[in-house]
Amino acid sequence: MSALLKIRSQRDQMSAIERRIGDFILDNAHLLRDYSSQQLANALEISQSSVVKFSQKLGYKGYPDLKYAIGEDIARGDGGNHDPAHESDGNGDRHAALAEALWQAKANAEQETRLLNPPDSLDAIAETIRSARTVFVIGLGQDSIAARGFTLRLSQVGILAVYHFDPALMPTSLANANHEDVLMVFSEHGKRAALCELSRLFRHRVGKVVSITRHSANPLRAQADLALLVSAHDERSHIEQLLYHSALQHLLDMVFVLLCEHVGERLQLLDRNAARMRQLLET
């Protein structure tokens, strides 16, 4: 596992000082080779021993080993700043380089996301959905794409799932909900006030809430009983969005596979529904 990936995946378990060190390294990875442990400590106004302990907590002998590992990450293009667009003159080579870099960035985002969602957490979410009477799903804007797609997948395996696109109208639909129901809220940054309030009310009066957000401290995640976390980082905004949606889709696919894995009836139902769809499309 790359050093930068370790820092991102373990950030939630770090102390305040460790998070300051980690955030500084993530933001200045390309400059780290010019920093000694004392210079890094001075920049953050902390002790040199804190930098050494941080390195050792990540599994390195000391700061020099951590700095060397980060240098290797950057050389491989894991630092999030690699742009292959200008590395070759021929269009064919350029396209191949772009495709390879994008694939690698997506793979890194999916790996980080997988580390942030341990098996026990995914199993708990899958079981919560599997045992729910009704799964209510909501997502606004770009989040609605993944929310609607996941709702459709749930329906295909016989899980009663209801997609909503307007939090103002949702309370009417929830009037008959009970403690056996689940609310899944898709919100990349988890800061939409309407969704946070809806989640709070649902959790307090009805059933469980599952949030799907970025790996960040946000109000929606704080309101949820269970959380799916997505990690995707790149200085280029258009690339970062691609990484986020790729990692999110991979995570949702994993939950869907878990839902089907131990229940043969669901797979049979999925096959029957697929056959019906093919029949409708061919007639």
Automatic annotation (TrEMBL):
- Transcription recorded as keyword: yes
Record keywords: Glycosyltransferase included? no
- The HTH rpiR-type domain, residue ranges: 1-77
Which parts of the sequence belong to the SIS domain? 125-265
Keywords attached to this entry: DNA-binding, Transcription, Transcription regulation
UniProt superkingdom? Bacteria
Instruction: Tell me which SUPFAM superfamilies the record gives.
Output: Homeodomain-like, SIS domain
The record, for PROSITE patterns, names: HTH_RPIR, SIS
Name of a matching Pfam family: HTH_6
This protein is called MurR/RpiR family transcriptional regulator
This protein's species is Luteimonas salinilitoris
